[in-house]
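As promised in the previous annual report, we have extended the structural survey to additional targets. Below is the entry for EF-hand domain-containing protein.
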Amino acid sequence: AADGDGDGRLLEPELDAFLHPEDFQHLQDLVAKETIEDLDRDGDGFIQVDEYIADLFEGPPGSPEPPEIQRERAQFLQSRDRDGDGRLGPSEVKLWLSPPSPDWAKVEAQHLIHHADLDQDGALSREEILGRWELFVGSRATDYGQDLHRHHDEL
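The corresponding structure token record, generated without further manual editing, is:
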């Protein structure tokens, strides 16, 4: 699907589409379909809230959900499930995986600051960044941790 010209080879933009298909409009339907296939445990073609949560957390039966999982459940029901039917269809999965945003870098920066700014001063100290290193390693803003190995005099 990423081989736009069908020549059996991937040029640089096609390789980028292959590695990050969620960022390419022509591949978003495929990404949504694959995500549904991965999470849809009952085979109905939709992702129910319990299927969504099961992908994030599976504790012993009857055990309470941690607060972060409770927040994810609420976000599913309040934001991701746009039509309120208790499940995500292909269009809702597309919006979840590739929400419309004019400035991805700003959105990612806001996300990182929101989750790592422990003293809520609007800036990240070295200690706050190192204290949440796993958040930064998993972020596109740091090229999935690669930028953390480069010298940054602006920090």
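The chain has a mean pLDDT of 86. The helical segments are 12-19, 28-39, 49-56, 67-80, 90-97, 104-116, 126-131, 133-137. These points will be discussed at the next consortium meeting with the crystallography subgroup.
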